[in-house]
Amino acid sequence: MAENLLKAEGIYKSFVGVQALKNVTFEIKPGEIHCLAGENGSGKSTLIKIISGVYAPDSGSMEFAGKKYEKITPIEAIKSGIQVIYQDFSVFPNLTVMENLAFNSELADRRKFVNWKRMRKIATEAIAKIDFKVDLDALVGSLTVAEKQMIAISRALMFNTKLIIMDEPTTALTKKEVGNLFNIILKLKERGIAILFVSHKLNEVFEISDFFTILRSGELVASGNTADLDAKKFSYFMTGREFTAKRFEAKNISSEPILETKNIGIEGSFQDVSFDLHKGEIIGITGLLDSGRTELALSLFGILPIDTGSFKINGKQVKITNPQTAVAHKIGYLPEDRLSEGLFLNQSIADNIIISEIDRLTVFAGVLDTKKRTDEIARWVKELSIATPNPENACQTLSGGNQQRIVLAKWLALNLDILVLNGPTVGVDIGSKHDIHEILQNLANEGLALIIISDDLPEVLENCSRILVMKAGRVVSDLDAAKADEQMILSYMM
Ligand SMILES: Nc1ncnc2c1ncn2[C@@H]1O[C@H](COP(=O)(O)OP(=O)(O)O)[C@@H](O)[C@H]1O
Ligand SMILES: [Mg+2]
Questions:
Q1: 80 CA distance to ligand 1 centroid (A)?
Q2: Which long-range contacts (CB under 8 A, 24 or more apart) does 482-485 make?
Q3: Which CATH code, of 3.40.50.300, 3.10.350.10, 3.40.50.2000, 3.10.310.10, is assigned to 257-493?
Q4: In testing the pocket of ligand 1, which one of 24, 35, 46 has its CB within 8 Å of the most ligand atoms?
Q5: What is the pLDDT of residues 435-461, one digit of tens each?
Q6: Integer Cα distance of 183 and 146 in angstroms
Q7: What is the pLDDT of residue 391?
Q8: pLDDT average, residue stretch 133-147
Q9: How large is the average pLDDT for residues 100-119?
Q10: CA of 44 to the centre of ligand 2 (A)
Q11: Would strands 211-216 and 33-37 be described as parallel, antiparallel, or unpaired?
Q12: Ligand 1 near 18 CB (within 6 A)
């Protein structure tokens, strides 16, 4: 067995009023891909800042490449081969790719004049290490998130790097970009570089890591071989709660459909989609990214109006040509990207909740009834258990799961009949995910009609009464969720 590259032992760290780490021990070997997991606030970033010398621990010790440290300084960390890629990548947007890559080494050599030719050579070599193709003269600010990340990785490899730490590197990436990042991580592993990968996403931990460590409230709860981990243990370690996934049982399905779609379609996106949705029902729509599922979701809310077929609501033919007409027919929509479409992050939690019912809360001439406003906010914070000390705090102070509850509250305040949810738990903590599922099931049993668009198969299987599988713009199967399983859905999807 190879020697440890790093061992951090018995680490304690407190901030004013918070014990961020309590007796945490962490080990990693050369060439190992190790996931550090834990819910928001569990201490992951604090631990990596201690390993990389940004914070000194209150007590504990570290050993890196055979050398002992009570605390390591940032310079010592870099010299001994530790590189951290932070969530913001610490790149300079106003400088070119070449400058971002080469300035450090130019500065480190204390050269008086910048040698552009040398810089170009250094930069070219740096990106070649990960086969990254990019215009060296482009401004980094003009690159995509994934490209900025590649720059940060290339830069990290310019040193004698033994350990690369990535703090939640997939947060802002598309699925394809995540795949690309994982390929690079595997190549780094082949070269003997250890990767400490911080994540709270179950599928990523299973896909990429050899070993895992899970923190909860600053304590080490489990660590070991990823092969010995399963989804149930993972949720338990992360949250300390046992979840018995409760399959949705529709208790209250209306006899008449609330929504009927007949042969609806949008040229080039999807065709010939017909289904009935009843109150009390949850329909799942799944399929690959290019299956037309997202366009279908958007058409139900009028963001992408249909160009063939028709809608009926309560048996009457209607046109849904924009979100206003959808809302007028009591249809609500939770977007996939709640951060840019669903919420005003800088505004208070309270304002985000009541924004859609402003009309109802306004007494006259635009004056808001403050008592009604306060009551309404208190009602939703309680109803959806939104974890906040004060609803006047900005929305961005909340975790993903709580932000998603706000988007829900915003719509529910309108007394809808139909709610379309696109990826309702993407990027949400496991605990919140279970809570949101429970809320959705209860809403259906209270008489709301729901449509969940999701590629998370356990999510649609557990929470829906029926599942429509889409492929190449068509519904290829309409399944009774109680009789379906993942294999069956996959075989229709592919
Ligand atoms: N610089 C700091 N000052 C005060 N409290 C902090 C600081 N950094 C982190 N914390 C607190 O320590 C705990 C762990 O935070 P963090 O390590 O960032 O968690 P994670 O990365 O797992 O989300 C949280 O309660 C957080 O609020
Ligand atoms: Mg963090």
A1: 26
A2: 482/247, 485/461
A3: 3.40.50.300
A4: 46
A5: 889 889 999 999 999 999 998 899 999
A6: 13
A7: 87
A8: 92
A9: 71
A10: 6
A11: parallel
A12: yes
User: Is ligand 1 within 6 A of the CB of residue 490?
Assistant: no
Q: Fold for 6-239, please state it.
A: Rossmann fold (3.40.50)
Name the β-bridge partners of 12.
59
2-47, pLDDT tens digit by residue?
A: 689 999 999 999 998 889 999 999 999 999 999 999 988 899 999 9
- Tokens 């014990």 locate to 19
Query: To 5 degrees, how large is the angle CA 33–CA 27–CA 162?
Result: 55
Structure tokens at 466: 């029926």
Ligand 1 nearest-atom number relative to CA 49:
17
Residues of the chain with CATH 3.40.50.300: 6-239, 257-493
- C-alpha 441/C-alpha 433 separation (Å) is 12
What span, in angstroms and rounded, lies between the C-alpha atoms of 465 and 455? 16
Residues with CB under 5 A from ligand 2 (ion): 45
- Ligand 1 site, residue 171, Cβ cutoff 6 A: no
**Which pLDDT does position 103 carry in this prediction?**
75
The DSSP 8-state label assigned to residue 226 in this structure reads: G
Task: Read off the pLDDT band of 353 (50, 70, 90).
Answer: confident
* pTM score above 0.85: no
Q: How far is the CA of 461 from the centre of ligand 2 (A)?
A: 31
Q: Which atom of ligand 1 is nearest to the CA of 40?
A: 23
* CB-count exposure of residue 94 (10 Å: 0-12, 13-18, 19+): exposed
Does the CB atom of residue 38 touch ligand 1 within 6 A?
A: yes
Nearest to 461 by CA among 437, 444, 445: 437
Q: Which of 32-36, 88-92, 331-335, 366-370 has the highest mean pLDDT?
A: 32-36
What would the pLDDT profile of 293-339 be if each residue is shown by its tens digit?
Answer: 999 999 999 989 999 999 999 999 999 998 889 989 999 988 776 65
Closest by Cα among 25, 15, 108 to 58? 15
Closest protein CA for atom 16 of ligand 1: 43
Whether residue 400 has its Cβ less than 6 Å from ligand 1: no
d(CA 457, CA 440): 16
Q: Which of 197, 182, 233, 167 is nearest to 34 (CA)?
A: 197
> From atom 26 of ligand 1, which residue's Cα is the shortest distance away?
41
User: Across the strands, what pairs with 214?
Assistant: 37, 222
- Look at ligand 1, atom 3, and give the residue with the nearest C-alpha: 15
194-199/33-37 β-pairing: parallel
Phi then psi for 376, rounded to 5 degrees?
A: -65, -45
